[in-house]
Amino acid sequence: MDLSSVSDEKKKKKESESESTQATGLSPANIKWLKTNETYGLFKRASRYKNKRGVMAERKVLKEKM
Questions:
Q1: 3-state SS, residue 44
Q2: For the segment 53-65, what is each residue's pLDDT rounded down to a tens digit?
């Protein structure tokens, strides 16, 4: 058994598991939209700050309306 066939088997198994966990009739969740939409998404607008190393970083905070 070579390495490519092992990876193909893992992909097939993962795909079959993801199909079985998805409820019938429902489309998969749009995670990117939940993270990036400012009006209806999960997070407030990201604020920028300097961390202790002096590098600019973004901080995402969950909205209060849940």
A1: coil
A2: 999 999 888 888 7
Q: What secondary structure does DSSP assign to 20-34, as a single string?
A: HHSPTT-PPP-HHHH
CA distance 2 to 46: 46
Residue 57 CB neighbours (<10 A): 11
The Cα 1–Cα 25 span in angstroms is 38
DSSP 3-state helix, strand, coil percentages of the chain (rounded to 5)? Answer: 40, 15, 45
The 10 Å Cβ neighbour count of residue 41 is: 16
pLDDT tens, position by position, 6-28: 677 777 776 765 555 556 677 88
